[in-house]
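Weekly structure sync, notes
Attendees: PL (lead), two postdocs, one rotation student
Agenda item 3: pending single-chain targets
PL asked that the sequence for the first pending target be pasted directly into the notes so everyone works from the same version. It is reproduced below exactly as submitted, 129 residues in total.
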Amino acid sequence: METALLFTFILLGAELFEAYIQRAPTLLGILERLNVYYQKSIFLFFAVHPGFYFVLFVVIATDILNVSMIFLIAMKVFDIFYKLELLKKVFKERVVSKELAQMMMWRIPSWYFLLGPMIYPPLLLYALT
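Predicted structure, written out during the meeting:
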């Protein structure tokens, strides 16, 4: 149980770091921040998602791969690749629908960035116990 709590708190720290790195007032601001990392190196872009790598480490270290863990990994993978797809559409192809362009300008509430730290660590704790 102590190991599960330790892993949960480490993931909480990784998720808070990720939220801090990606914090911006709009979705376009988030994409602009991520695009800076992406332009420098694709590896740097992936490095600003430490929660994903830590979850993979936990799976390997604990040898636990249940439904909750698979769901957690799938959510992290979809998050990363959705951001990559948006970066491609907005900054490379410059093809954005009018609706998406409007949505990217909406203000994001400050609590939105705490969704990851509120969802992923409890899900990891549930998967480990």
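Discussion points:
- The chain has seven helices and no strands.
- The CA atoms of residues 62 and 69 lie 11 Å apart.
Action: rotation student to compare against the earlier draft before next sync.
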